[in-house]
Amino acid sequence: LAPWVPVVGLEIHAQISSNSKLFSGSQVQFAAPPNSLVSFFDASLPGTLPVLNRRCVEAAVMTGLALNCSINKKSLFDRKHYFYADLPAGYQITQQRVPVAVNGSLSYSLCIDNKMSQMVTKTVRIKQIQLEQDSGKSLHDDTRSQTLVDLNRAGVGLMEVVMEPDMCCGEEAAAAVRELQLILQTLGSSQAVMAEGQLRVDANVSVHHPGEPYGVRTEVKNINSIRFLAKAIDYEIQRQIEELESGGTILNETRAFDSKLGCTVPMRDKEGKQDYRFMPEPNLPPLILYDAKSLPANMNHQQVINIDWIHERLPDLPSVKRKKLVEQYGILPEHSFTLLNEDGLAEFFESVVKQTQMKPKKVIGWILKDLLSYLKQHSLTVKESPVSSFLLADLLNLLEKKEISSTAAKQVLAELWKGEGKTPLEIVKEQKLELLQDQKELEQICQAVIDGHKNE
């Protein structure tokens, strides 16, 4: 038999970084007391009406532009009906027919055979980006056989990024999501912290033989970790291949990933397609956006969103930042990926380079081998590092001036990790480490004595 071809597509829900919800003035805050951030509209009290949040629209437009999308100057809102305890209205306001952005692309890089020095760039197509409400959160108490509902998250603004099925394994999907996460964080359109549910991924997976139509797909829902995403997809691909090769069939179903068992488990079947009864949202007019050409002369700029104005203010995206790091400091491309993948590490590196006389190529070694390995070993972020960029630069200056040896520098760094507020020079004197200059003089004296004995 011909080899199996896996196909992977993603649907990603990113929580928009805004002070208030998509259609109400309720505050957005993680881990607030249950049901403390719920407006009358969020609870779906009769007579309440949605008011669109400008910030959420700007974030969606900004994200669409960063992902090379076409921005629809006219987009529409729809109601998607389904009934669950954490959806008080019995429907979700979304953009089914005409979303805010369509037809984009995302380029991402991944290693070949886990070698950072061998990287390949791939592209996944973006089908659309749409605005929609988040639902509340159901908390299942198995002990008491009851479900508690927290509506703090109900109505929070989401961007749903739908990717075409252009990927073929968990590694590719993980790399694409990580790149998207970096872009969202760079733009400020979403904090995209997966541990807090600000970025949730649904993966659609199927397998087929070359030249044949796509196979029946399964959907793995609500994956909240990039590492788990790769594992869930790879497991599901292998499960489907084994099922088909043993004469079984693949069910069109929704599955969940059990991180403890390392496998996907069935949630519900999708054979009978659910009728969401989509209908136009009657309480919201079409969303109209403008550019420099279409903006009316007498229009109040405060009341409209100008696509060109947002485009002009886009920051450098991660791909541009990596290129600049390589060109400016002469570091390896794979090192630029590591610097950007760790939050705040690129800024730390540049700060050290500005304060030291050591060449950037040497600095990067200390940053990646010593600083980063210590932080990961102790589960610390760059911002939590007990060694500041100033202290590390001070230490590297001593080393660059050849006032201390490399071995002594390692000893000093080990003391700096204790976070006692001492400078590298203070530690050198306190530990009575040999200064390299004194060591050289001692070596010269010893050599002279040796030479004298030889002459005798």
From TrEMBL:
HAMAP family on file: GatB (MF_00121)
Source species: Cardinalis cardinalis
Keywords from the UniProt entry: ATP-binding, Ligase, Nucleotide-binding, Protein biosynthesis, Transferase
Gene Ontology CC annotation, any one: mitochondrion
GO biological process, one term: glutaminyl-tRNAGln biosynthesis via transamidation
Domain Asn/Gln amidotransferase intervals: 347-456
UniProt family annotation: Belongs to the GatB/GatE family. GatB subfamily.
Any one Gene Ontology molecular-function term assigned to this protein's record: transferase activity
InterPro entries: Asn/Gln-tRNA_amidoTrfase_suB/E (IPR017959), Asn/Gln-tRNA_Trfase_suB/E_cat (IPR006075), Asn/Gln_amidotransferase (IPR018027), Asn/Gln_tRNA_amidoTrase-B-like (IPR003789), GatB (IPR004413), Gln_synth/guanido_kin_cat_dom (IPR014746)
Signal sequence region: none
Protein name stated in the entry: GATB amidotransferase
Catalytic function, reaction form: L-glutamyl-tRNA(Gln) + L-glutamine + ATP + H2O = L-glutaminyl-tRNA(Gln) + L-glutamate + ADP + phosphate + H(+)
Keyword Cytoplasm: no
